[in-house]
Amino acid sequence: MPLHALGAKTPVPSHPSRARLETFPNPKPGRPYEIVFSTAEFTSLCPVTGQPDFATITLRYVPNRRCVESKSLKLYLHSFRNVGSFAEAVTNRILDDLVRALAPRHAVVTGEFAARGGIALKVSASFGKPA
């Protein structure tokens, strides 16, 4: 599968369902190793109030046959900006979409959502067994 987002001026998808997580072959499929992506610039919307929710999203995965391309991941995460969804749903959706695109050996997505009303929220969702 060719990489379309990398090196191109690619618009941000309007919704995660319109985003495409692009992948490339794992250069060391026989070796279990961990890949970690983290962004402190994630935003989504509270589905009740419409107020922005700010979070640090961390993705950790042990690839199997495929790896995710970082620019397509950035565009995918940015597509949540105007989507109303609870933090628990956001975190689980990211994991589900990552697993669907990669079929990793193991993956964990953690969303650390900034405090609202004095309470911060951290959600972790996992797939598979650690290497």
Structure summary:
By secondary structure, this protein is an alpha+beta fold. It has two helices and six strands, in the order ββββααββ. 19% of the residues lie in helices and 37% in strands.
Question: Can you walk through the features of this model?
Answer:
The protein is an alpha+beta fold and 131 residues long. It has one domain (16-128): 2-Layer Sandwich (GTP Cyclohydrolase I, domain 2). The model has no long low-confidence stretch (mean pLDDT 93). Helices cover 19% and strands 37% of the residues.
The amount of beta strand, in percent, is 35-45%
How many helices? The count is 2
CATH-derived topology = GTP Cyclohydrolase I, domain 2
**How many structural domains?**
1
Terminal CA distance reads 27 Å
CATH C-level label: Alpha Beta
The whole-angstrom Rg is: 15 Å
- Name the helix and strand elements from N-terminus to C-terminus, one letter apiece: EEEEHHEE
Largest sheet: 4 strands, antiparallel
Output the strand order for the largest sheet. Answer: 2-3-5-6
The helix content is: 10-25%
Extract low-pLDDT stretches. Answer: none
CATH superfamily: GTP cyclohydrolase I, C-terminal domain/NADPH-dependent 7-cyano-7-deazaguanine reductase, N-terminal domain
The counted number of beta strands is 6
Based on secondary structure, the structural category is: alpha+beta
Whole-number mean pLDDT: 93
> In CATH terms, what is the architecture?
2-Layer Sandwich
General form: globular
